[in-house]
Predict the structure.
Amino acid sequence: MPFIPSLYARRLGSLASILAAASLATLLAAPTAAAAPPTPISAAAARSYLTTVTPKTEGSTSGYSRDLFPHWSTVSGTCNTRETVLKRDGSGVVQDSACAAVSGSWYSEYDGATWTAASDLDIDHVVPLAEAWRSGANSWTTTKRQQFANDLTRPQLIAVTDNVNQAKGDLDPGKWLPPRTAYRCTYARMWVGVKQYWALSMDSTEKTALVNILNAC
């Protein structure tokens, strides 16, 4: 068949249209932004660690106060831990001179919602402060508790929908899990990794819930 420039051009044009449509579909299917805490330990590593954990009866909240876990700490310049997480976990985040996020887009991994106002988000402590207190942090120094409450190195902080975080409160995985089931494996890995690093205890219900989640990962 002889080479026909106009036919070749039409074919290229059709191919370009197909590729463009496919790219658009991919963009529409993807969340506007996805939270990006540090990568948690693998499911295999989490399962392995849990085999070494002897459940311990959870302590009480006697003496607990959020003030004993100072947050949010200054990270750089006028930016504190909360603002740093909002910047990290968002897409196209614009901050003012005081480091407050004035625009951007945030995808909440816990419930699959997307937000464009920072006021709709909380920074969740994956292992809640009160849970940490009941699991051994009551014996820590205030300095160590401050490090825990502002930990950007482990997957301990994540920007999520505020009322979902408030529904979680100080509950462990035996009593609460993210509504978005697709994130539960990641959440369990985050939880175990944080508890392992900070040498915090687990109660039996908490451990059983984590084992069940991770066995399905």
The chain is about 40% helix and 15% strand. Residues 1-32 have pLDDT under 50 and may be disordered. The first strand starts at residue 74 and ends at 76.
